[in-house]
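Q: Convert this sequence to structure tokens.
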Amino acid sequence: MQGMFYEKNISNGDSPQTAATKSALQVTAVNAGAMVGVAVVGYLVSEAGVVGAARTLYGLFKGAKKLKSEKIAKRPAKLKPKEGSLGGPGSGKNFSEKVKNQVRTESDNTCVFCGRKTTKGENSPSKSNIDHAIPKVKKGNNTVENAQNTCRTCNLQKRTRTTEEFLKDIKNGEKLKSLDQN
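A:
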């Protein structure tokens, strides 16, 4: 592709060095998904010269990459119930505050079953309950892999079922209670 741009730039009267630089910039613009970039590069080169165009494009791409990484960092973790884990030294034990806080952060304070926002400390149906995906009575452990954020309503409805059992019962017709019914 660069050869095609190079030949076109040479035919337009550019020196070999300018044509090579222009064609490299044009390929960069195309590869970045900016088909319009070819025209933009031509304009930038005519207005700011080859070096100025290169600096401008570099700044634009660097800024776009930074924005994308910031957006990804702010995005909540993919919200889905966990399969859980069992056994080991933490089998049948409560979660530490560190694990509870980590799980709340992972879920963006959202119930993994119904999607409602949860609150910490407030005694209400939407209160955050850190649930054992595999219950303690079934040898579920106190690791992050077995911890999931739920609202009080869903946690009470799940009772001592595993996440897998609970989801299967919902699929077979059991309805999640609303916050009003709790």
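The two ends are 64 Å apart (CA to CA).
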